[in-house]
């Protein structure tokens, strides 16, 4: 008789599902990849086949030119809540993770055992994607990006108000918000709309295609305009969204006296804000904070927790102190992506 959970193996470059000959979020090309979401440290091109939600497949096609008839091989869409039978008798169900559009936890069932790979996730409401769903399992594979007690993300409404207050107090300037191009930028725009901001929001050219993809999937972002198409003075008193890398480069010099802001969970760390010359740090994260990580483990009630890509030691220690079985995985290629 096989040992419990012997059908799944953690490796530095991904989680291997042996009976299905498939990998979860592999960092190198494989024959079959089960992908949780479209960020570059979880998704890549070149696989023989990719199994993911339709939204994640659309994101991968846009970012990495994957999909049917391309170098990405066969694409198999699995909508939320549907179960697909993989080779070797493994059932895979994709469940909302609340991270970005299309992001999923992958529930794998085999030999009477249930394993969930969460990918990246958050527990806060987000108007751009379905919320995280707590799902019981035997093994929970969790991220730990913000796995230290110091990381407690504030309510996003307060961060949006800081942004709107800075705009109102400086009508002759603009506010330039650095935000990751997939997920963070669209969430900031959607939250601004929810806060009542109806004015046009201006985009760096690198943001346009992903914002349009979100709109194609039913996310209302309001009126968006390109900086490249707009005279400088017309952007005074407006919000501009760009990749974090553009905050202090030559591109930003064409803007009208910008107040530099950045939306990231790392803005909790003052040194990070100073390093980037950020005047207005906005603590906005698309990952679970410390309390949400521990609450998720408490609610899922796994027999064992596997911890990966992040502050693994502290979360591992919390599990030990609360009499929970856990192990840290030595994964490679996990980045904070200007989170």
Topology diagram in text:
Layout: E1 8-11, E2 14-17, E3 22-24, E4 33-34, E5 49-52, H1 54-64, E6 74-77, E7 83-86, E8 90-96, E9 104-110, E10 113-117, E11 139-144, H2 156-169, E12 174-178, H3 184-194, E13 201-203, H4 208-216, E14 224-226, E15 239-242, E16 258-263, H5 270-275, E17 280-282, H6 290-300, E18 304-310, H7 312-321, E19 325-328
Parallel strand pairs: 3-4, 4-5, 5-6, 10-11, 11-18, 12-15, 12-16, 13-14, 13-15, 16-17, 18-19
Antiparallel strand pairs: 1-2, 2-3, 7-8, 8-9, 9-10
InterPro entries: MBL, Metallo-B-lactamas, RibonucZ/Hydroxyglut_hydro, Xnuc_lig_assoc
GO molecular function, one term: RNA endonuclease activity
Domain Metallo-beta-lactamase: 32-175
What fraction of residues sit in β-strands?
A: 25-35%
Please estimate the helix content.
Answer: 10-25%
Radius of gyration, rounded? 21 Å
Return the domain count. 2
Mean pLDDT: 93
Q: Which class of secondary structure composition applies to the elements?
A: alpha/beta
Query: What CATH architecture of the largest domain do you see?
Result: 4-Layer Sandwich
User: How many extended strands?
Assistant: 19
| Topology pattern, helix = H, strand = E | EEEEEHEEEEEEHEHEHEEEHEHEHE
Task: Output the number of helix runs.
Answer: 7
GO molecular function: RNA endonuclease activity
InterPro entries: MBL, Metallo-B-lactamas, RibonucZ/Hydroxyglut_hydro, Xnuc_lig_assoc
Protein name: Endoribonuclease YSH1
Organism: Alteripontixanthobacter maritimus
């Amino acid at each position: 008789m096989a040992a419990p959970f012997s059908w799944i193996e953690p490796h530095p470059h991904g989680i291997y599902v042996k009976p299905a000959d498939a990998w979860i979020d592999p960092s190198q090309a494989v024959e079959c990849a089960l992908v949780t979401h479209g960020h570059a440290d979880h998704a890549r091109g070149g696989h023989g086949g990719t199994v993911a939600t339709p939204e994640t497949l659309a994101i991968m096609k846009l970012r990495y030119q994957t999909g049917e008839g391309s170098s990405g091989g066969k694409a198999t869409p699995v909508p939320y809540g549907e179960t697909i039978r993989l080779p070797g008798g493994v059932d895979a169900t994709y469940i909302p993770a609340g991270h970005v559009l299309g992001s999923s936890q992958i529930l794998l069932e085999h030999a009477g055992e249930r394993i969930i790979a969460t990918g990246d996730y958050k527990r806060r409401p987000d108007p751009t994607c379905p919320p995280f769903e707590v799902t019981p399992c035997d093994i929970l594979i969790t991220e730990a990006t913000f796995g230290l007690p110091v990381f407690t993300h504030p309510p996003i409404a307060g961060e949006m108000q800081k942004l709107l207050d800075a705009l109102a107090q400086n009508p002759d300037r603009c506010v330039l918000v650095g935000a990751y191009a997939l997920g963070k930028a669209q969430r900031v725009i959607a939250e601004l709309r929810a806060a009542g901001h109806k004015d046009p929001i201006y985009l760096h050219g690198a943001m346009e295609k992903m914002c349009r993809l979100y709109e194609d999937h039913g996310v209302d972002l309001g009126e968006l305009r390109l900086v490249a198409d707009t005279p400088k003075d017309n952007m005074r008193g407006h919000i501009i969204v760009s990749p974090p890398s553009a905050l202090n480069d030559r591109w930003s010099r064409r803007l009208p006296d910008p107040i530099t802001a950045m939306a990231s969970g790392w803005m909790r760390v003052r040194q990070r804000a100073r390093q980037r010359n950020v005047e207005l740090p906005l603590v906005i994260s698309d990952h679970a904070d410390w309390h949400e990580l521990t609450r998720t483990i408490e609610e899922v009630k796994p027999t064992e927790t596997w911890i990966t890509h992040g502050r693994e030691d502290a979360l591992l220690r919390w599990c030990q102190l609360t009499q929970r079985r856990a192990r840290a995985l030595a994964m490679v290629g996990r980045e904070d992506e200007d989170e």
